Amino acid sequence: MIRYTRIPRLNYLGAGSLLPSARQLHTTKVSSDFFSWFKSKKNQDQEPTVPTKGTQELISDIEAGKTSKISNKQKLELIPENFIGEEEGELAEKARAKQIKGVPFNRWLSAKKVANEAQLDALLIESYNNAWNGSKITSATDSKLEGTFPDLVIKFNFTKSLQASSGYLIPDYQLTILNTPAQFKNYICKEILSGKQARYKESEPNAIHLSSAQFTSPNIYIVPDVKPKAQKNTYRKIIREVNILEAESARRAIEQARQS
Question: Which of 22, 23, 75, 179 is deepest in the core (most CB within 10 A)?
């Protein structure tokens, strides 16, 4: 029988040195990935499991009111302290506030509102003298206040000065139909100083103010207006009750989820 012996292949390394060719083995350090940290923490924090009980023993514990508690640190309890983050509405409100904070607003209306007719007369004289360069008045009973505006530029300057100093805006419709300074004074006294404008907002659908004195028919009943202060108090009371109910509902939901 002829046996064949395998002769190892020789490699030439360097100058004239002969070494047998062999497969080299090498090792490297284990590279831990991102999730390996969680696996290691889970093994460290894992508590010993509760030993199983027999059926009869478990029934006896339940009847006696005993409950087994299994704590798992990998799960958070459903309590308000463990809820993180912000609601979408709060984030949007903060973003808008940040954008508006750096905007330079031109507040041309006076923060101090005109309160009586004497103050209005002084503002009327000041606005007239600012608008008319050549003509000046010193009294609110001057006949010049009954005259019409000579052009739109003077009317614009007068109405802008009157609105800015009085602190009240005049609707565009009134700016169009009123043609004399005296008419603007009558409008402000009738609509603003009388308190009529404070009962409603012109931009809302219920801006028309009705009273029972306007209708003589017995089959027409006008619901009395609710003062803005009473409306705000009622609104705050409703919102307060809603917040209490929502908080109670959330508390019950958390308690039920915690017990389940």
Answer: 179
Distances (CA, A) of 145 to 119, 123, 153: 16, 13, 17
Amino acid making up residue 213: A
Residue 183 lies in a domain: yes
Q: Tell me what percent of the residues of the chain surpass a pLDDT of 90.
A: 28
Query: Does 182 reside within a domain?
Result: yes
Domain of residue 149, CATH code: 1.10.1200.10
C-beta contacts of 226-233 below 8 A and 24+ residues apart: 227/199, 228/198, 228/199
Angle at 92 between CA 202 and CA 90, to 5 degrees: 95
**Domain range enclosing 173:** 117-200
141 in Cβ contact with 197 (< 8 Å): no
- 53: CB partners within 8 A, 6+ apart: 61
Tally of domains within the chain:
1
